[in-house]
Structure formats: C-alpha cells, structure tokens
Amino acid sequence: MLYIFLLIFLIPIFIFLYPALSLILGIFFSFVLTPEKNFITISLKTYPIQVAIVLIGLSLNFEVLNFININIILYISFAVIFTFFLGLLIGKIMGLNTNYVYLISAGTAICGASAMLALASTIKVQSKQLAISIGILFFLNTLAIIIFPYIGYVFDFNTYEFGFFSALAIHDTANVIGTALIFDRESAEVATTLKLFRTLWIIPLLLFVTYKFKSTQENIFFTIPKFIIFFIFAVALNLLFSIPESINNIFEIGSIVLINLGLFCIGTQFSYKNLNPNSLYIALGFSLILWISIILLTLLPISINFFRFN
Q1: pTM metric for this prediction
Q2: Are 188 and 97 in contact (CB under 8 A)?
Q3: Phi, psi dihedral angles at 45 (to 5 degrees)
Q4: Cα 171 to Cα 6, 187, 210, 219, distances in angstroms
Q5: What is the DSSP letter of 17?
Q6: Average of pLDDT values for 174-183?
Q7: Would you list the DSSP string of 20-80?
Q8: Which residue of 20, 39, 144, 181 is surrounded by the most CB atoms within 10 Å?
Q9: Is the C-alpha dihedral spanning 164, 170, 176, 180 positive or negative?
C-alpha cells in the first residue's frame, strides 16, 4: 500500500519538476505515512542527487563558468575557514556542547550532513547529537530552498550572483543545486561547480580535527565524496570531447529529474523523532546565528560587485 502512495506522490513531482515542491512532498510523505528505515526512498539516500551532479558535469556550458577566477576561489576558502572558526568561538561563548559546536560549524561551513557524518567518527559523537544536528541543518536547508529564490528575485541577482549566493550560503549540495535550479539552469551549473570546490575543504577540516582530538583515524582522503571525483571526470570528458547538443539535452533533463527525485527522497528521510526539544533550541539558535553570518558574508561581495559579475 505504501508503494501505491509513493507513486501518487511522484506524479506531481515529475509533472512540475519544481525542487521546493519535491522536498516538501517528501517531508509530508514522511510525516503522514512514516516509512520504515529500509523503505526504498530512505535506502536511496542522496544517490539520485549524486548521479544528477555527474550528469551536470557532462552537460556543463563552459561559457557560464568563464567568470570563475582565483579571487572567487580565495573568497570561498576564506568564507569556509572564517565560518568554521566563528562557529567554534560563538559555541564557546554560548556554552554549547563541544560536539554540537564542531558538527554544526563544519556542516554550515562546508557541506552540511556530509561534513557532519565525516566528522562524527573522529570526535566520537552520540547518535542523538548527530541526529539533532542534521535535523537542524535539514530544517534550515528547507527554508533556503523556499526563501532564497525570492531573495534572488528581490535583489535582481543575475545567473552568476545567484549561483555564488546558493553555493556559499546553503549547507547541503542537494539543496544548493535544487535552489539554484529554481532560479535558472545556468545558475545551477555555477552553483554546482563552486559548491563542489567548497566541499573539498572537508579534507583540511578532518586533518585539523584529527590533530585537535588526537584521533587515530586513517585514510582521511577516502572521506572525499566519490561523486566529486566522478563529477571532475565528467567535466573532463565534456571538455575533451564534443558532445552533441541532443545528448547534452538528455543529460540536462535527466539531471533535473534526478534532482527532484533526490530531494523527495531526502524529504522522506526526515523524522521528527530525531529532534530532542531539550537540546534543540540552543543548538538551533547557534545554527541560525552561524547561518545568518555566512549569508551576510556571501551577500557582501555581491552588493559591492567585488567579483564584477555583471
């Protein structure tokens, strides 16, 4: 019976292909029907999004990426480092549990749940702390996918500005791409490329935390999400070989479909049972302060046209 409801929910997702709707329907599916942990949408995790990212690499319009230069790369690096250590400082001032501070700071600065999961084994967090931290960032990501496109329209962002804004101010890669895709396709390409560079900061983060906590974790480089490697390989193929436009269009449509399917799957993985009210409010307040900080840090260079996106 649950699979019949799944098919009913998937119909509007594939008709409208609107990322915010896909995510909201996934959350609604989870709250109303409470699927088991081994249900197909939960087992899929973020794999549809990962495949979509590779397809984006195969269909990238390189003219859209001509604006990327060393100044943008350096600013993203600065923003990641600043946000992480700002989180450590604010968390210490607030007296928040160290595990929450490191998890949320890493998730906000780099790549959301992926950074948290990579960090969890290093600092030996409790499963409850990890669930609460991921739940909070999931909530903020949901807000972003609904609110950010309107911010882009209100401030009249162009493709490059909104791609930069999404890539730097949203936590998880899936939500970055979904939000940018609502704005326009080219913006999603910009956001994907910049976000994946930001994700690579997971390596220095783990090196730092391993040293800080005197962890014996090995093979840190194996913590790099595999889809990043496949994305780079796909971009190289796209660059070396002239892919026909008809094939490019198939890759493009496929990536959009998979992004919406992936966001629905992510929505079904949300569980209110993971949110413990006793620990939730102070951690949520901490997350909001840190998130607002990186939003302002992202809007600053756009407002003064520092990168000359126009």
Answers
A1: 0.85
A2: no
A3: 55, -125
A4: 27, 17, 22, 24
A5: -
A6: 92
A7: HHHHHHHHHHHHHH---TTSHHHHTTTHHHHHHHHHHHHT--TTGGGG--HHHHHHHHHHH
A8: 181
A9: negative
